[in-house]
Every structure is written in structure tokens, then in C-alpha cells.
Amino acid sequence: MQHTYVIGEIGQNHNGSVDIAKLIIDLAARNVVDGYFDDNYPGMDAVKLTKRDLKQELSQSEMNRIYDNSNSFGKTYGEHREYLELSDEEHFEVYKYAKSKGLEFVETLCAIGTLSLLKLFTPDKLKVASRDLTNLPLLAAMAETKLPIILSTGMGGKKEIDDALAVISKYHSNISILHCVSQYPTEPKNVNLNSIKYLLKNYGNYTIGYSDHTIGISTPVAAAVMGAKIIEKHITIDRRMKGTDQAGSLGPDGVYRMIRDLRILDNSLGVQDVFISDGVVESKAKLERSIATNRKIKAGEKFSENDIHMLSPGIGYKWDERNMIIGKIAVVDIPENEIITAELIK
């Protein structure tokens, strides 16, 4: 069984609450049970939080901009962002809870100042947001930690990817590249999943994946078929909650269905070969054709090709084995339309 590494992006869907973040982690950790085949598939592999340093985040005019809408948690955009920001200690608490649930923890760092988190804990991976693909000083600071880095390409092309890789690879090569489109939600016409094939061809020495912002689950599953080894998707406990990312995220049912389909896909891809699988043996014996009599054959009669045709079940000779029958003599009377087996001829 192959395994797609699935990241549940909490992002700001915790709405400033550690308790909500923990509920989302419970959702991510939930296994998928296939009652028909009695298969038990693992849930997500990791969850991801985002850490900002508001002193290094926005211009003063943007911080002071009036932000008055149904998703706002403050009068200004700065107040809104501050409300949604968890402290280093709160990130550590969420990290420990994710670990207790058997999940890896990915942290998106949005400023050099956010590396203060690393004094408290060590994430399994660091994530570079699409908007920071060109923030080369940040990339250098993150790479210096020697932690695995995931790059999202939602706001960049080949030049931006190459520039980022040139900076990070000075420190290490444990890098993953996620095809991404930073449109929320992403229109199908803009997804361009063939970018995954491009990345596999041109950056095949790195792990290639897909960070999804489409509505639904078909696109991430298709991305895995195309070779994405990492799938990232926003998740929430309730898509009706207040917040700009909630409606475009997967709720509990969507998470369950996406993980189900990805894990079934993992189990379905198999190997590059053509063969008769173990699960087909019973059907083959029941349904395939075998050589049978097309008339009543008396004991002592010699078989010719005119005496045979093909019927089910598939327990006897195949047509390419007809020379095992033609010219042989029936040792007993054989009724019409009966399978010819070895003990009936000599």
C-alpha cells in the first residue's frame, strides 16, 4: 500500500481558540473504517498551524485599515489579525495535543520573529506560505534550522521556485514542493493539475505534492493519482463558523470522505505490471470459459475440433490447450455441453 501524506490545515480556523484547534485535531486524527471489506485506514498524517509576528506582518496603514464585515474579529484589520493569533505557548499546547493523537505537526512561519517558537518545541516540518516564496531572508532563516521545509507555489512560477530552492539548498535538501493556486476558492479552470507532472519532471529530486483550495474532494484525489505525495487541505469542525476560511474548508463529513478516497486510492494503485490478482481467482474459476462438448460424446470416440466449444465455469482446458483434447479418446460417455476434464479422456 502506498501512502499519501495528508496535512490538515487548521490555519486560522481555530478562531483564536486552543480548544477549537484541539477539536479540529480530533477530526484530523479520526480513522476511516470500510465496513464492506473490513479495512481500517489511518486518518490524516499531520496538522498545520500558522504563526505570524504582527510587528513583521503588515504596513501601519494596513494594520489601521477599517475591517468591518461578518468575518471580522476586530474594528481594524490589525485588531482582527491580533485576535486570531495564538501565542507561542498556545502553539506549544496545540503541538503537544497533536502529538498525543499520533499526528505530525507542521508550522507555517510568516516572519523571522516567529522562529521564537522553536525555543519551546520542534515542529516535524516547516511550511513556507505561497506569499513568502519570494521572502528570501525568511527562507534562509528557516533553512538554517535544518528542519524539513515545504514550499507552496501558489504565487510563483519557475523563477520564484528556483530562487527559493537556491537559498534553502545552501543549508539542506529536505524540501517538498506543493503545486498550489492562491485563489480562495480556486476555480476549476485555474487548478491546472498538470503542473504536478511538470514539477515531477523538473524537480523530481524533491517530494512533490499539492495544496488544495478548491471546493470538494475530487481535485486532491486526482492530484494523488497524478503523483502528488503530499496533499494539504483546509479543515474545520463547522463550515458555518465565523471566519474567512471556514466556508472553503472541509467539514467533518468532507474530511472523512477525502481521507476515505485517498486511502482507498493508496490501496488501489499497486505496481506497474499486469497479472491475475488473488481477488480474481474465485471469479476466474466461476466465470471464465473452458473447453466443453458441443454434442454427446460416447466412450471410445475420438475428439475433433468440431466436437468442442467454450462454456463456463473456467475449471477446465482453455482454447489454447485444445491440443490436449483433439485426437484423444473419451473414456466414458460425456453429455452435451459438459466441461472436458483430464479424467474423461486418454
Explain what this protein looks like in three dimensions.
33% of the residues are buried. Helix content is 29%, strand content 17%. Helix 1 packs parallel to helix 4, helix 5 runs parallel beside helix 6 and helix 9 packs parallel to helix 10. It has two domains: 264 residues, Aldolase class I (TIM Barrel); 67 residues, Antifreeze-like/N-acetylneuraminic acid synthase C-terminal domain (Type Iii Antifreeze Protein Isoform Hplc 12, Alpha-Beta Complex). The longest helix has 17 residues. The strands form three sheets. An eight-stranded parallel β-barrel has the order 1-4-5-6-7-8-9-10, surrounded by six helices. A two-stranded antiparallel sheet has the order 2-3. The mean pLDDT is 95. It has 346 residues and is α/β, with parallel strands linked by helices. It starts with a strand and ends in a 35-residue tail after the last strand. The chain is built from eleven helices and twelve strands.
